[in-house]
């Protein structure tokens, strides 16, 4: 049913259950008879919560093994990028970690200290909008309903409670080899190596014989620690450096770190590095578009890092399954199969018309050549 949610672009368990109940074809796909009850949204949510994360990892790796069996998983070079997922938590429901007071109580206390006695709600909002030093930090605030969600700047520039989803995509086959979910404020430099290790483990357990050789990422992932650790793990890092007006000094630094950074700089400036960077931009953004935008996973209706991770794993697994189907059948999406029969019938009608036209053309040529053939024979 979670796969159906991705294929249909449904965001919540409630909408998935309603859609599967409404459609007989989906019920048949789920193995349900005409009179069998479809699990409601609470059953789906409770089962999703009770199953451990290892079960979802096994499903994800099973689909990767199908891709490897079909020759659609190479696993030599991966592109890594991240996006934000809006959490099922409100900025207005945050509380202070030290006192447990909400935003309104905290602002009213500051207003009283500033000499504003018994302010109204409008006065309180005006005071909060204009007060100096206004800052909301994850170190001081949390949402009591979803403590794992953090205050994050979204892609559209707004500030929301969110998570960060990170994908590792095979740059040869467009298959997502690893999908991890982190708190929204987790630095990219702290999550890239974990995602790369997960990708290497998933590819190995899926039956891929090749070893992970290259990691490709944008400049937000660049750090000396990341490049050095990738080198120590036997992987080449193609990560752009941030622009700096000053030349870096390497005094009292490990020569191995300097060598790793210079080698990564040289690789990113080569033709191979530029080609991999273009592929990373194309394929990772495509995976986010398929999973988050058309797949309905841009906003989660679940709470807790574990639940969000399990749901996102299934969304990415469904996307990998659709990629395998498209590569095998040559059809764009799952719904494109619905018009395949009409397409074949139309093609056959045009083919019959073409044969009829060729028959008429041959008959006309034979009639035209008949006098000449009789003259030659005479």
Please explain how this structure is put together.
This protein is α/β, with parallel strands linked by helices. The protein has four domains: 1-50, no CATH class; 52-90 and 149-330, no CATH class; 95-135, no CATH class; 342-371. It has 13 helices and eight strands. The protein has helices spanning 2-8, 13-22, 24-29, 41-50, 53-69, 103-113, 121-130, 188-205, 224-232, 255-268, 271-294, 305-329, 340-377; strands at 77-86, 95-96, 141-142, 150-153, 159-170, 176-183, 214-217, 236-239. Strands 1, 4, 5, 6, 7 and 8 form a six-stranded mixed beta sheet that branches. A two-stranded antiparallel ribbon has the order 2-3. A hairpin with a 5-residue loop joins strand 5 and strand 6 (176-183). Helix 5 (53-69) packs parallel to helix 12 and helix 9 (224-232) packs across helix 10. It is extended. The mean pLDDT is 88.
* Oligomeric organization of the protein chains: single chain
Share in β-strands: 5-15%
The DSSP helix count reads 13
Q: Average pLDDT, to the nearest integer?
A: 88
| Largest sheet descriptor | 6 strands, mixed
Low-confidence stretches at least 5 residues in length (pLDDT < 50)? none
Helix amount: 40-55%
Number of strands: 8
Basic shape: extended
Helix-strand pattern, N to C? HHHHHEEHHEEEEHEHEHHHH
Topology:
Elements: H1 2-8, H2 13-22, H3 24-29, H4 41-50, H5 53-69, E1 77-86, E2 95-96, H6 103-113, H7 121-130, E3 141-142, E4 150-153, E5 159-170, E6 176-183, H8 188-205, E7 214-217, H9 224-232, E8 236-239, H10 255-268, H11 271-294, H12 305-329, H13 340-377
Parallel strand pairs: 1-7, 7-8
Antiparallel strand pairs: 1-5, 2-3, 4-5, 5-6
Helix pairs in contact: 1-12, 2-4, 5-12, 8-9, 9-10
């Amino acid at each position: 049913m979670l796969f159906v949610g991705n294929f249909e672009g449904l965001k919540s368990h409630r909408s998935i259950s309603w859609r599967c109940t409404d459609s007989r074809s989906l019920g048949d796909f789920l193995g349900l008879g005409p009179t069998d009850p479809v699990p409601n949204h609470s059953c789906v949510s409770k089962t999703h919560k009770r199953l451990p994360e290892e079960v979802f990892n096994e499903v994800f790796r099973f689909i990767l093994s199908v891709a490897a069996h079909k020759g659609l998983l190479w696993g030599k070079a991966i592109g890594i990028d991240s996006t934000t997922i809006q959490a099922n938590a409100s900025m207005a429901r945050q509380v202070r970690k030290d006192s447990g007071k909400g935003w309104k109580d905290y602002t009213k206390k500051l207003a009283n200290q500033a000499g504003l006695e018994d302010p109204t709600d409008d006065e309180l909002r005006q005071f909060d909008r204009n007060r100096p030093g206004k800052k909301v930090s994850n170190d001081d605030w949390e949402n009591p309903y979803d403590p794992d969600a953090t205050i994050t700047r979204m892609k559209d520039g707004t500030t929301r409670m969110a998570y960060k989803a990170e994908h590792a995509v095979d740059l040869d086959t467009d298959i997502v080899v690893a999908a991890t979910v982190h708190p929204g404020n987790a630095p990219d430099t702290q999550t890239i190596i974990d995602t790369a290790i997960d990708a290497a483990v998933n590819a190995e357990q899926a039956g891929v014989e090749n070893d992970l050789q290259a990691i490709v990422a944008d400049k937000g992932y660049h750090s000396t620690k990341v490049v050095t650790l990738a080198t120590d793990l036997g992987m080449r890092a193609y990560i752009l450096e941030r622009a700096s007006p000053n030349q870096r000094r390497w005094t009292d630094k490990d020569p191995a770190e300097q060598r790793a950074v210079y080698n990564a700089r040289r690789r990113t400036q080569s033709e191979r590095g530029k080609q991999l960077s273009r592929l990373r931009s194309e394929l990772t953004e495509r995976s986010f578009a398929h999973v988050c935008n058309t797949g309905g996973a841009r906003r989660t209706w679940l709470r807790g890092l574990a639940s969000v991770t399990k749901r996102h794993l299934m969304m990415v697994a469904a996307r990998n399954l659709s990629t395998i189907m498209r590569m095998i059948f040559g059809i764009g999406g799952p719904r494109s199969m619905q018009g395949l029969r009409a397409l074949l019938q139309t093609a056959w009608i045009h083919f019959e018309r073409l044969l009829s036209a060729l028959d008429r053309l041959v008959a006309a040529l034979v009639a035209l050549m008949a006098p000449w053939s009789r003259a030659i024979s005479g």
